[in-house]
Specification:
The complex is a heterodimer.
Chain A lengths: L6 H30 L8 E8 L7 H18 L5 E2 L12 E12 L3 H7 L5 E11 L4 E11 L7 H16 L12
Helix pairs in contact in A: 2-4
Chain B lengths: L1 H27 L1 H4 L8 E7 L8 E8 L2 E6 L2 E6 L3 E12 L2 H10 L4 H8 L1 E12 L5 E9 L2 H12 L22
Antiparallel strand pairs in B: 1-2, 1-7, 2-3, 3-4, 5-6, 6-7
Helix pairs in contact in B: 3-4
The chains are: A alpha/beta, B alpha+beta.
Chain lengths: 184, 182
């Protein structure tokens, strides 16, 4: 089949409606998805307590890294009205407050060099029991969550993995609607 | 003459890996030699925790009568001595070279990258400080620094009036053992 010399011009003339349609789809698609996205922010605020562990079970740098990473991740989820630190006096007057407690279940300190050399050994693992409860002690969510660094990264990366996993669990968990006087 | 050169060549090739291994070992141990450096103004890495300071930022940490002071380029973070609840030190080791060397090691054929990993690690000190803000909220800051520097900084903080549940250079505060966290 022989194409005439002005074939590209004719193609461009015929294709412009299709191009315009594609552009419109791309421009409008995010708005459409955003409209379908459910409202994620709950009516609850949350206060994070540091990990409870027995003497010498969890090094302080890991404990503080879990605590700080978790606060950062919870703020990022946008699930809660406010995220309070442990001991924050501002949380005292907040209605609908949940308190997040973590109890250490297992901690295995690996080695980055062992991971880099063997690939299969030297993993660092942190496992905690997560309990989210109202002020009066009613548990809203209880789960075991683990954070692991297996191949790449320093040992403290396990705390980031753990915090991300906890934040994801809380983001996806259906929280009950706060009743009158809940969390007071 | 050419015969002599031909005979020595295998020995040179045998010596090369030995020399490179020795150099890598020496490079990995340089942190130990700098342990007795200046007690204040320690070069360190802010791992996390300081308000307004990015994570994994390298800078200078100073412990003075007013508290901890971290400076890195335009970033600046402080922790007042009165707000410090506890100070912990620990030791850990990590791979040097960052992401660049990690990627380079993956590119070495026949598992050569793993051999490089054996020699490209160094020991580090970590300094963890727990403090409370004006509202009473608990914060934690973690720094990593060359070996031996964390104890010096902790001693300076304790001498300035910071509270530490484990005394400085206590036998119970062994490397990798960690302290008490309740």
């Amino acid at each position: 089949m022989k194409l005439s010399g002005n074939f590209p011009v004719r193609l461009a003339r015929r294709a412009w409606p299709a191009v315009l349609l594609c552009a419109l789809c791309v421009a409008l698609a995010p708005r459409g998805f955003a409209a379908e996205k459910p409202e994620t922010t709950s009516a609850w605020a949350i206060q994070v307590e540091p990990v409870q562990a027995d003497e010498g079970q969890l090094p302080p740098e890991f404990s503080m890294a879990i605590y700080e990473d978790l606060i950062a991740q919870l703020v990022k989820t946008d699930k809660f009205q406010q995220v309070f630190r442990s001991g924050d006096h501002e949380a005292d007057g907040v209605p609908n407050l949940l308190v997040l407690h973590m109890t250490l279940q297992n901690f295995e300190r690996g080695n980055q060099t062992t991971r880099a050399v063997t690939t299969v050994a030297g993993a660092t693992k942190v496992q905690v029991h997560l309990k989210v409860a109202t002020r009066d002690g009613n548990a809203v969510l209880e789960k075991d969550v683990q954070g692991t660094v297996r191949i790449f990264g320093e040992n403290l990366k396990a705390t980031f993995a753990l915090a991300s996993a906890i934040a994801a669990k809380l983001r996806d968990a259906p929280l009950p609607a706060p009743t009158k006087g809940a969390g007071q | 003459m050419p015969t002599v050169r031909k005979n020595t060549r295998p020995y040179i090739f045998l010596l090369l890996p030995l020399l490179s291994a020795l150099c890598a070992g020496l490079f990995a141990q340089t942190a130990d030699t700098s342990a007795s450096a200046a007690p204040s103004g320690v070069r360190c890495m802010h791992v996390l925790g300081l308000e307004g300071v990015k994570r994994n930022l390298h800078g200078t940490l100073t412990a003075g009568p007013s508290g901890l002071d971290f400076k890195a380029g335009g970033a600046h973070g402080t922790v007042a001595i009165a707000s410090i609840q506890d100070v912990f030190t620990a030791q850990d080791s990590h791979q040097v070279g960052g992401k660049v060397l990690t990627v380079a090691k993956m590119g070495v054929p026949y598992g050569g990258g793993r051999v490089v990993s054996l020699f490209s690690h160094e020991k580090l000190d970590s300094l963890t400080v727990e403090y409370r803000d004006a509202n009473g909220g608990l914060h934690g800051v973690v720094f990593t620094m060359p070996l031996g520097q964390a104890t010096v900084l902790k001693k300076q903080l304790v001498d300035s009036g910071a509270h530490a549940s484990i005394p400085v250079a206590s036998p119970s505060e062994k490397p990798d053992a960690g302290g008490t966290k309740q």
